[in-house]
From TrEMBL:
It comes from Corallincola platygyrae. This is Type IV pilus biogenesis protein PilM. The gene is pilM.
Length: 301
């Protein structure tokens, strides 16, 4: 059963985004108006402070009048698996997918909350489907906490599907390099407001704590190679025109230096990711990941 349909219900109005990262809960608040207001708060998640305790440790009381809430799962809490499309009717697809991925994810089939999506283009001859899978035994306690707090949950989603909603709908493709501290890097290519490509890159969890010297002596060059591989796949395998811009949103004090070093390795512009929806809020990468969930939910309502 899809993640959102399993736990959510539709709503509209003031919105709350809760992104559950590896060791951080980001609580993002969006109040529509003229002008709209956006805020984001990072709360610690640990063995000593679980989801419930983290949510209620907010410096600002949880809103009593929020009309919508979205959970965004960080990479620790879900899996994305690409498989061949099962040859079954659409009504039987979800069940067929749970069996198709049962040996690829460490979740028993009867505990899978899953959804699936297709990309706008695929390599020649491919007929793949992307399956998003989470464990209901992990999700349900989070959902119960939100319901107890009277926060009306409308959807459960993931970064890869939320982030494109922060992009303008234009024909030029853009590559985003984004990360929440202590998590894998996420590379996404967005075109016409749609996700065309996504990839998690391991080995950069501590990027935010690296010194300028470390960044200059190989780290950013290696990151450039990872980005270039994604650009090459987009052009050669997906047969798309070249990406026109690289956007960056990274934690830590040296993000401007990383942008400068990346710029030296590419012939296309490299700049900070500042989506229009958040231009007045000065959000860091964790705040943007939380806001993306709200904007995505708003578009789906």
């Amino acid at each position: 059963m899809p993640l959102g349909r399993l736990f959510g219900r539709k709503a509209s109005g003031e919105r709350i985004g809760v992104r559950v990262g590896n060791d951080t809960l980001t609580l993002c608040r969006y109040h529509a108006g003229a002008p709209s207001t956006i805020s984001a708060e990072r709360l610690s998640l640990s063995a000593e402070q679980d989801f419930d305790a983290a949510l209620h440790s907010s410096a600002e009381a949880l809103p009593a009048n929020a009309s919508d809430c979205q959970i965004t799962l960080g990479p620790k809490h879900y899996h994305i698996v690409q498989v061949d499309r099962p040859r079954v009717d659409e009504s039987e697809l979800a069940q067929a997918l749970s069996w198709a991925i049962k040996d690829l994810v460490p979740i028993p089939p009867d505990q899978m909350a899953l959804d699936y999506f297709e990309l706008p283009v695929q390599p020649a001859g491919a007929d793949k489907i992307n399956v998003v899978c989470a464990d209901t035994s992990v999700l349900k306690p989070m959902v119960d906490v939100l319901h107890s707090a009277k926060l009306p949950l409308s959807n459960v989603c993931v970064d890869e599907l939320n982030l494109p909603k922060l992009f303008p709908v234009i024909d030029e493709a853009q590559l985003l390099v984004i990360q929440q501290e202590n998590e894998e890097l996420l590379l996404v290519i967005v075109k016409q407001g749609m996700l065309y490509f996504s990839r998690r890159v391991r080995g950069y969890d501590l990027l935010a704590t690296m010194t300028p010297e470390e960044l200059r002596t190989g780290v950013v060059d290696n990151l450039s190679l990872e980005a270039q591989r994604s650009l090459d796949y987009f052009e050669s395998q997906l047969r798309q025109p070249p990406v026109k811009q690289i956007l960056v949103s990274l934690p830590g004090a040296h993000s401007e230096l990383i942008i400068e070093l990346l710029s030296a390795n590419f012939f296309i512009p490299v700049s900070s990711f500042e989506p229009e929806a958040a231009v007045s809020a000065n959000l860091d990468s964790s705040g943007l990941l939380g806001l993306a969930g709200i904007i995505a939910s708003e578009g789906a309502s």
